[in-house]
Amino acid sequence: DIVVTQSPDSLAVSLGERATINCKSSQSVFYNTNNKNYLAWYQQRPGQPPKLLIYWASTRESGVPDRFSGSGSGTDFTLTISSLQAEDVAVYYCQQYYATPWTFGQGTKVEIK
Amino acid sequence: QVQLVQSGAEVKNPGASVKVSCKASGYTFTSFPIHWVRQAPGQRLELMGWINTGNGNTKYSQKFQGRVTITRDTSANTAYMELSSLISEDTAMFYCTRVPAYCGDDCYFFDSWGQGTLVTVSP
What is the pLDDT of residues A41-88, one digit of tens each? Predict the structure, then answer.
């Protein structure tokens, strides 16, 4: 199985400041044939199911604010929240869908400093 | 719009089985597989398996193979996940989920989720 590891486990950021979450996969999730990275990002607020934010590592889901962005390739990826808002308090997960079983990171909890 | 509505919370004894339902609406049920995800307290999300709602074919993650059965009733637009031989570590929230309509054959990320069903395993 591909192991997906996020860092840090938690972070506290001031309102309006940048939050950066890292995601590392145990093997590359880049597929040469179509030049795509098989990685997605989700936001999970307390008591709610996950919400899709980013797919193909950097494509923002429709309706997701543009302060959320994804980057990276191969085994190393980043989710950036450019200007943290109060409603962004949540746990964020990355997921690889390159190989079954599709696996998630352990989550990163984002709080307000 | 796409909606996935799951059955209510369950409390089960160790060794028992639990069956969770997921009723779909807002789209053609048989056009998209339904996947099941487990989220134990403080643990990462885990894919349990999925069902091709058109032909009923299933695929299970190795971790749950032998304990999980996923079925569907096309007349009711409903998928089911049954987990047997429950232990306390199975106490978790279970979600059904679906890939986006714009997905091709190779994308397995999820944009529609049920509200979750909490299963508590306790003697």
Answer: 999 999 999 999 999 999 999 999 999 999 999 999 999 999 999 999
Sort A60 into a burial class: Cβ within 10 Å, 0-12 / 13-18 / 19+: middle
CB pairs A-B closer than 8 Å: 48
Torsions phi, psi for B103 (to 5 deg): -70, 145
**Dihedral over Cα of A14, A55, B25, B45: its sign:** negative
Closest chain B residue to A62, measured at CA: B111
Q: How far is B46 from chain A (nearest CA, A)?
A: 7
The answer to whether B40 and B91 have CB atoms below 8 angstroms apart is: yes
A46 touches chain B (CB under 8 A): no
Alpha carbon A65 to chain centroid, angstroms:
14
Cβ neighbours of A80 (radius 10 Å):
13
